[in-house]
């Protein structure tokens, strides 16, 4: 966010402006959302369909404004294309698409994207397995989080046996 819009300073969601045109050439005299936060911008970059009503197909005003901002910046457009293409590769069943994707982004001028793409090469077997097999470790992670939450809530109050009883009770209902 600071790279693309360096003159924006966000304080509790309220954006303030220092100049009219930023370093990327984006003219801020156009309609700009009042709360241009990096969190919202990340959502709209990674999910191009975010802000569209699934039943009626209507676009929200924020969706239209965010798309104008993304289209006006080369960096944000490149980030959106990066995210969308990576999601499609991971959702597909072809590991050869992954290799083509890595080769395409290995020479990307944006260093963070290039680092991500080359980092996938180090764990290429794990990434290929994630594409090929429907298995994941979500169940084990959920149980770990539940246990940690119980332990945190009971810290200093009871013995380990009581934590064990509460864990079993929470799993069995």
- State the share of residues found in helices, binned by percent: 55-70%
Overall form: extended
- Biggest sheet: strands, sense, closure? 2 strands, antiparallel
Mean pLDDT: 78
Separation, N- and C-terminal Cα atoms: 45 Å
Count of helical stretches: 8
Strand order in the sheet with the most strands: 1-2
Annotation, overall tally of beta strands: 2
Unreliable stretches (pLDDT < 50, length at least 5) are 10-15
Counting structural domains, the number is 3
Given the helix and strand composition, which structural class is it? Answer: mainly alpha
- Strand proportion, as a percent range, falls in under 5%
* Topology pattern, helix = H, strand = E: EEHHHHHHHH
Radius of gyration: 22 Å
Summarize the structure in words.
With 173 residues, the protein is mainly α. It has three domains: 1-79, no CATH class; 92-135, no CATH class; 138-172. Helices cover 58% and strands 3% of the residues. The protein has eight helices and two strands; from the N terminus they run ββαααααααα. It has helices at residues 38-46, 61-72, 74-91, 95-105, 111-122, 124-132, 138-153, 160-172; strands at residues 9-11, 14-16. The chain has a two-stranded antiparallel sheet with strand order 1-2. Helix 3 runs antiparallel to helix 4 (95-105). The protein is extended, with a radius of gyration of 22 Å. Mean pLDDT is 78; it is low at 10-15.
